[in-house]
Amino acid sequence: MTGAKAKRARGLRPDSSQAVPASPPSNRRWKPWLWLLGLAVIFLFIEYWVPLATSIKLGTDEDFELSKVLLYLKGYHLYSEVWDDQPPLYTWLLAHLVRPYSLAILPARLLTVGLTLLLLGSFFRLIVNLGNLRTAVGATALLIAAPGFLELASSCMVEIPTVSFVLAALAWLSRPGAHRWPWREIGAGALFGVALQIKGIALVYGPLLVLLLWLKYRPPFKQLILSTAVIGLTSVAAFISLNALTGYGLGLQLQQAWASHFAGTRSFEYGSPAEHVFDLKLLFKNWDVMVPVLAGVGFLITQIRSKPLTIFPLAWLVLTATVISTHRPWWGCYYLHNAIPLCWCAAMVLDAAFDWAGSRKVRTILLAAYLMAAGLWMGIRSYLEVAAMRHSPQVFNSLVLSEINRYKPFTKYMFATEEIYTFHAGIPMPPSLAQITLKRFWSGDLTNEKLADELAAIKPGVILTGNQVGELPYSALLQRDYRLVYQDNEHQLYALKTISRLANQ
After folding, report:
1. Sheet of 482-487: strands edge to edge?
2. Contacts (Cβ under 8 Å, ≥6 apart) of 18
3. Distance (Å, rounded) from C-alpha 249 to C-alpha 331?
4. What average pLDDT score do residues 252-263 get?
5. Which terminus of the chain is more solvent-facing, meaning fewer CB atoms within 10 Å of its CB: N or C?
6. Predicted pLDDT of residue 111
């Protein structure tokens, strides 16, 4: 067998321009893992102070995720009975976690905490595989302190679970050592398929898998196409297999979970997606990352020729900036997708600055001053984020939840503008009205008139609204058939007149 044929038989090899280091001594081999353990301990220490078990709500979309879980546990089917614009895996996982604990929210939030550890570990290993340890430590620390990261890491939302498996796929594909085709492609594809099964936004990251494959191994074009095909087919196979595991077909799922994301705006009762744009204030809040990125982006570009792998985080940043940040509507949780490459690029610049500073006194002082200021800002930002979660409404002292529980024995359905309360009360939303999102109104799937008609037909036992001045679409129904039984600064609770009489007997 010729040398060229032997190469192809063994599979791809790392790019020859990226020298493969000899096996490090055992003490150096453990060094990255010790740093990763330290970062994980810091993250878990912060999470210890978050009231995971008692906060009523920790993330903007916990309403939707947990109301779906409750309906699923009550025997209702997603898509055919419960409107859902996401794949079923995350709902299925949450349902099986909370079922044994009588709807306790702690196991559900611990799932996100665990997947956050997967995200941080995969991010760290990816950078170590492609860069160096110092950059990996810096980037991971910056990400933990990024705006909104701790809230996402503590709540039942799909953003972190999705990205965690995307990063796991990238980390798996970038593992050091000889490339044993096609096992790396199969592993990466399977992990990517899991990410797709949680949220379709994972599709945005597909080009990064191909780019990483090319940058690290420099395969011939035909081999690159073949490897890409293996990743794609494995992703599809994993997606379909997990769909079968959850017990759902693809028909209605594709109609709601996929097509709804591309539906045009037909109703403007609640504005339009164009009104929800990228929040530039987040970049100012994240100045500890933006300063080195803006100061050093030119330097990073010049490094591409000597260090080709430098292009990967830059390409990642361009991808998220052009696709995620320009998407309409844009929501605050999407900043995670920008924060990851921004933190990586910032850490690369800071790592280079350490070498650049050398022993020169002025440069060293300037760098130290920046690190002290940035570190203080990151600590304050993280503290304030945790403090906000600690001061959020708690289950154990919620008067409105106590009042709802009085009517629970007489109530089959509960309608709430904050759907999270249906989960804590254990009273499901009407299936057809679960997930009252702006997307449904914009697409014309739901209107104020339809909402009022559905409520009039179903007549939920209790209705919980915000304590607002404006008239509700179903105000006539409330005046005719319901009685106001509780009110505070935030809520108004209405009970059917017949149920109100039963509860007060």
Report:
1. 414-416, 462-466, 491-496, 482-487
2. 216, 308, 309
3. 29
4. 70
5. C
6. 97
Whole-angstrom Cα Rg for the chain: 25
Q: What average pLDDT does the structure give for the chain?
A: 90
User: H or E element: which one contains 501?
Assistant: helix 497-503
Write the pLDDT tens digit of every residue in 296-331. Answer: 999 999 989 888 899 999 999 999 999 999 988 999
Of the candidates 60, 95, 53, 97, the one whose C-alpha atom is nearest the C-alpha of residue 77 is: 95
Question: Would 475 be classed as within a structural domain?
Answer: yes
376-379, Cβ contacts within 8 angstroms, sequence gap of 24 or more: 377/287, 377/288, 378/141, 378/142, 378/145, 378/288, 379/145
H or E element in which residue 462 lies: strand 462-466
From CA 17, how far away is CA 99, in angstroms rounded?
53
What is the pLDDT, as a whole number, of residue 23?
47
Domain that holds residue 471: 395-503
pLDDT single digits (tens) 391-406: 999 999 999 999 999 9
What pTM value is reported for the model? 0.91
φ and ψ of 485, to 5 deg: -110, -10
As a whole-number percent, the residues of the chain with pLDDT over 70 amount to 92
DSSP letters, 415-457, are EESSTHHHHHHT-PPPGGGS---HHHHHHTS--HHHHHHHHHH
454 within domain boundaries: yes
Question: What per-residue confidence (pLDDT) applies to 461?
Answer: 96
User: Ranked by mean pLDDT, which of 177-186, 212-221, 450-459 comes out on top?
Assistant: 450-459
Q: How far is the C-alpha of 52 from the C-alpha of 105, rounded, in Å?
A: 8
List, as one string, the DSSP characters of 299-333: HHHHTTTT-GGGHHHHHHHHHHHHHTTT-SS--GG
Q: How far apart are CA 487 and CA 129, in angstroms?
A: 57
Number of domains in the chain: 1
Confidence category of residue 28, pLDDT binned at 50, 70, 90: low
Which pLDDT does position 476 carry in this prediction?
94
Q: What is the DSSP string of 343-357?
A: HHHHHHHHHHHHHHH
Q: Are 279 and 455 in contact (CB under 8 A)?
A: no
> 133-144 vs 106-130: helix axis angle to the nearest 10?
150
> Does residue 425 lie within any of the structural domains?
yes
The pLDDT, as a whole number, for residue 191 is 98
Nearest-angstrom CA–CA distance, 13 and 325: 35
* CA atoms of 496 and 222, how far apart (whole Å): 68
Question: In angstroms, rounded to a whole number, what is the distance separating the alpha carbons of residues 310 and 429?
Answer: 49
Tell me whether residue 251 is in a domain: no
Q: Are 276 and 60 in contact (CB under 8 A)?
A: no
Q: What confidence category does residue 268 fall into, taking pLDDT thresholds of 50, 70 and 90?
A: confident
Rounded to 5°, angle at Cα 140 from 364 and 146: 90
Burial class (CB in 10 A: 0-12, 13-18, 19+), 322: exposed
